[in-house]
Known about the structure:
With 65 residues, the protein is of the alpha+beta class. The chain has one domain (5-63): Ubiquitin-like (UB roll), CATH 3.10.20.810. It has helices at 5-9, 39-48, and strands at residues 18-24, 31-38, 52-55, 60-63. A two-stranded antiparallel ribbon has the order 1-2. A two-stranded antiparallel ribbon has the order 3-4. The two termini are 15 Å apart.
Amino acid sequence: MEASEEALAAVKYNADGLVPAIVQDAATKAVLMMAWMSAETLALTLVEGRTVFWSRSRQEVWRKG
């Protein structure tokens, strides 16, 4: 996955430094889940090629996939 620096800079984070992330089924477009991402976990997602979220309850990185 590739994203431009401009696109990453345009992400609007909330006061906690998080942005909602929606996971959808590619074929049906059904929403599978919503979780939160920080700037760090968004960058990790792009580098690792798998989805990385921020767990608000555990206050730690949460890897999926």
